[in-house]
Amino acid sequence: MCPKLFDILSEDVLDLIVAEVAKDAGLEELCEMRFVCRDLSYVLESKLFKTATINITRPARTEPIENHGLREWGECSVDYAFKSPKPSSSGKQIPVYPSQESHRRSEEVGIGTMVLNYDVVLAVSQLPKLRSVQLLFETGWRDSAPLLPLEYFKGLHSLELSNLPLSQRAVDALRQTITISPELQSLNILYQGRHSSLEDLASVFADAVAAPAFVPTLERLILRGRHITLSPACVPYLSALTDLQIDQCATAHAVDPAFWEALADGRVRLQHLQIYPLSPSIVAYLKTYTGLKTLRLSGNGKDESSINRQLHMVEDLYREIVPHHREALRVLCTGNLPTTVWELEAKNLKAILRCRNLETLALKYRYDVGKGNIDLPISNLVTEVVKRLPKLAKVNIHLNEDVKFSERLPNPAPPPNLPNHVPPLHVLFNH
Fold it and tell me: Which InterPro entries match (predicted)?
């Protein structure tokens, strides 16, 4: 059996072989099967990595797999392209490198680590076609621990950092990575620590904006956690932004109201927005243009003062924002909020029913056991959205009461005379 044997097989046949192996075996079994012989490894190697995607995590066991036909310190499977070597008897560090030449074509990599693995990260950073990086730091990572060499990643299109300790060293490294990645399109930062040296996100954009040939390319920005602030100084770097997701209440409150004014002045028109709570400055910004496709309100609403401030924001949402963007809206989600402020009323449903292109809808609904909802019976709600929203494919209704399903929805008959092109509708009830 040799690689030439597989050369006579068509591309479709090889795809079927790999698909069946992946279907009938888990990752560990698939990994072992690939090590049966070099020839099978050769075929799976070229097929599995055809899309140039690898993932790097800390192996559950430290000993290397022996006699597998690959380099001594290279363990290769669907998920692992690199392996940390066990310390040598001399105490010297053994280099870590891609186990196959085909891995050098990898464009996407994910690394999850609790302990320092400098050599692995350094090896990954040298992949010539690397464009997407995900770094996950376990919650046990100490700010005082040696920092991974973030500054070696360059030319990235996507960067995701989870639980990165935002010490001054980390902020400096992040700023350098962004500066040497002039075509960065997506940035995702999750931080849940108590202290941060990143007082304003603009500080990591400053060097990139100051570059003579700077052109804004970032299209997606995701911020989750605490101690990350957005100010007007961020806007020059965010001029191409179309997708902004700010999750968790503390972060949303940290956004300077002037930031939204600067977005409007810079004619930055978001197509996708996730945030909570709403504020007058956000409402004012969203009224300066049309074209918002996704609006998700998601966050922590347990702060009583915040709830009180949101009462009039509900009215602004359905009176101002939703009607203003009704032609473009595809996704509207207000259901995953822990406050009764956002329970849907009949008067607000009218605004939703004008969004004829809506595809996904998530709502919070109040159901009184034994009484139902006099203002808006749930059967009427489901019937109306099915009848009036022809492109709707998914409805998620969050119920406030723990009642039997038969009490929630009396299975209304489908409305008559629906157009033939109506897609299948998925209705989900949560409580």
Answer: LRR_dom_sf
